[in-house]
TrEMBL record:
This is Dihydrolipoyl dehydrogenase. Residues 7-319 form the FAD/NAD(P)-binding domain. Keywords: FAD, Flavoprotein, NAD, Nucleotide-binding. FAD binds at K52, T141, G142, S143, D304. Pfam families: Pyr_redox_2 (PF07992), Pyr_redox_dim (PF02852). Residues 342-441 form the Pyridine nucleotide-disulphide oxidoreductase dimerisation domain. NAD(+) binds at G178, G179, G180, I181, I182, G183, M184, E185, G262. Disulfide bonds join C43-C48. SUPFAM superfamilies: FAD/NAD(P)-binding domain, FAD/NAD-linked reductases, dimerisation (C-terminal) domain. GO terms for molecular function: flavin adenine dinucleotide binding; NAD(P)H dehydrogenase (quinone) activity. Binds 1 FAD per subunit. Belongs to the class-I pyridine nucleotide-disulfide oxidoreductase family.
Length: 465
């Protein structure tokens, strides 16, 4: 017997699931939003927002320590760990509370507090034994930290992004396992807050880069703030107090270890094998990135659950596309996917936009170690690489430089609009700004294509540009 029926059932009330529910309802469907907790999204509770709060405190400490060069003397800078963590949790709780309120604003009959698993392509069973029958199902179950076996028995010495933000105080010595996005952001933040940090990765390179020079600049910047041990196979041992990490050729003791070795999709226990979908060796179905449909069934997969572009704005976009397509099934419409944009909030930020420099691309470079505004601010470091096609149209960029998180949006706009390097040079670029640094890269592309240089466009550089 079916206990609940709807047009579209959404499993998971995170960013992607909430967007999917809104979209399906806006398109005329009756919906059910199923989640065991409704505690707020990963972004608000244990992801984007608390991590940025920690990073914000770290930036303040770093800037406070760096004032002497301006002739401004603040005296010794001290970091009060409990105060840092208390502010973090207070604001984090506000963000999470606002998200929870928006969930609670949904009509009661839509919210089903339970875990769900498939019993067929469009039928689900809830933990309390009730069943759900829908015309379409959207999977929006997110992802969770993967903790490799040797770290699982470390008790409270082990931290992941699920537990780090609950610490009452900052640890004195922290091992970070995984030099990907989470590892780099949190390792640098902790180091700037006075924690002695060693970052381990089994790979020889740090994550998030696709350009060798950008990687070298990133490595150089981080290596001044923490110990980097790449290409190692770290192995932990619990001590009476804290833990020891051994690797080939060395060992070091720590108070805590943060494991940031990736976040696989939450598909365990979902019963995907009951759907009839073809599953790969990881148990994942094929998901069309344009429609978010799984195979040819009325099942859609969005957000971190589909493992493609696991970022906040992509989770919202995917939810909205899938919500609409779940209603229009069996005629899903390909959604417009935005220019890929990823920002790692290190200082300076690490950014990728659009395509990498594939064969045939023309690349221009801007050096930020000698850029006027960056020098004014005592932040002169890193570089930007802009990539164009053979016609000079911008197709992508890799940046590790001050202001990269903001300039990335300008570049995404230019790529979306099909602008050439010359078109960008025809826009007003204020002096002296970080954006001005990009002119060097744009001019290099124009020269290499070559693009016609309008007779009335100046090619000089103002002082400190
Ligand atoms: C530390 C950290 C920092 C980050 N920083 C950024 C950032 O700065 N910028 C950025 O763009 N992205 C960032 N991200 C990534 C971003 O947070 C995620 O991409 C986004 O939150 C994914 O949203 P989602 O809806 O897919 O998943 P979630 O928000 O995790 O939602 C999944 C929901 O599914 C529910 N669920 C799971 N299984 C079941 C089941 N069987 N039945 C019912 N419900 C179920 C869960 O309870 C949960 O509510 C960060 C992530 C982390 C971890
Ligand atoms: N600013 C942002 O947008 C932001 C911030 C944080 C997280 N996120 C999202 O969260 C996702 C997950 O981030 P993440 O950093 O956990 O994963 P990741 O995939 O970016 O990095 C994992 C790293 O761990 C290493 N690793 C794996 N197993 C290991 C082991 N046993 N020992 C040592 N190293 C090991 C890998 O080589 C890799 O470098 C990201 O893909 C991103 O989408 C985004």
């Amino acid at each position: 017997m079916t206990d609940l029926t709807c047009d579209v059932a959404i499993i998971g009330a995170g960013t992607a699931g909430l967007a999917a529910e809104r979209s399906a309802r806006k398109n005329g469907a009756t919906t059910l939003l199923i989640d065991p907790e409704f505690i707020g999204t990963t972004c608000a509770t244990v992801g984007c927002m608390p991590s940025k709060l920690l990073i914000a405190a770290a930036h303040r400490a770093h800037d406070a320590r760096g004032t002497d060069t301006f002739g401004v003397h603040t005296g010794e800078v001290t970091v009060n760990g409990p105060e840092v963590m208390t502010r973090l949790r207070r604001l984090r709780d506000d963000f999470a509370g606002a998200t929870r309120d928006s969930i609670m604003d949904l009509p009661d009959e839509i919210r089903i507090q339970s875990r769900a698993h498939f019993t067929g392509p469009t039928t689900l069973e809830l933990e309390d034994g009730r069943s759900v029958s829908a015309k379409a199902v959207i999977i929006a179950t997110g992802s969770s930290p993967m903790v490799p076996p040797p770290y699982r028995d470390l008790g409270d010495r082990l931290l992941t992004n699920d537990t780090l933000f609950e610490l009452p105080d900052l640890p004195r010595r922290l091992a970070v396992i995984g030099g990907g996005i989470i590892g780099m952001e949190l390792a640098q933040a902790m180091a700037r807050l006075g924690v002695k940090v060693t970052l381990f990765d089994q790979s020889d390179s740090l994550g998030g880069t696709r350009d060798e020079d950008i990687h070298d600049a990133l490595y150089d910047a981080l290596s001044h703030e923490m110990t980097l041990r790449l290409g190692t196979d770290p192995q932990p041992t619990a001590l009476e107090v804290g833990l020891r990490i051994d690797w080939e050729g060395g060992s070091e003791e720590f108070d805590k270890v943060l494991v940031a070795t990736g976040r696989p999709p939450n598909i365990k226990g979902l019963g995907l094998d009951a759907t009839g979908l073809d599953l790969d060796d990881k148990g994942m179905p094929q998901v069309c990135p344009a429609t978010l449909q799984c195979g040819d069934l009325p099942i859609f997969m969005v957000g971190d659950a589909d493992a493609d572009r696991p970022l906040l704005h992509e989770a919202s976009d995917e939810g909205a596309i899938a919500g609409r397509n779940a209603v229009s099934f069996p005629a899903p419409v390909p959604g417009t996917r935005k220019v890929p944009l990823a920002v790692t909030f290190t200082d300076p930020p690490l950014v990728t936009v659009g395509q990498p420099a594939d064969e045939g691309a023309v690349t221009g470079t801007a050096d930020y170690t000698d850029q006027g505004r960056a020098k004014v601010e005592d932040r002169a470091t890193g570089l930007a690489r802009l990539h164009a096609d053979r016609e000079g149209r911008l197709i992508g960029a890799d940046l590790f430089c001050p202001g990269a998180d903001h300039m990335a949006h300008l570049l995404a706009l230019a790529i979306t609009q099909g602008m050439t390097a010359g078109d960008m040079l025809d826009l007003p670029i204020y002096h002296p700004t970080l954006e001005e640094g990009l002119k060097t890269a744009l001019r290099e592309i124009c020269g290499a294509i070559p693009l016609q240089h309008p007779g009335d466009r100046d090619c000089g550089s103002p002082s400190g540009a």
